[in-house]
Amino acid sequence: MKEFTLDSLQKEVDVWASQFEKPYFSPLSMMAAMTEEVGEVARVVNAKHGDKKKKDGEYIKDLEEELGDLLFSICCMANDQGVSLKSAMNKKFDKVYNRDNNRFTRKDEV
Description:
The chain is mainly alpha-helical. The protein has helices at 6-17, 27-49, 63-81, 85-98.
């Protein structure tokens, strides 16, 4: 199993995609693909934890596979649009560590 950083993950996806004449779909098509993947993640979670259980004989993929599909789609969008996921996550962590730092009850406060 490979170990990835966000940078190396994006690079791995780009190396794979770059072998094709048109490595990435249009942004709108990639957004639709990401939306489909989010729906598949939702289906897995709903079948396991929600009110909509799977039907008899219905095959439900596992959450790991679906999250992998979603992450791949996110990498494709980021690569195509020149977005560093590392930078994006650093900005997100800055936001949650500052804005949301006291928003939720901590375990030691209960």
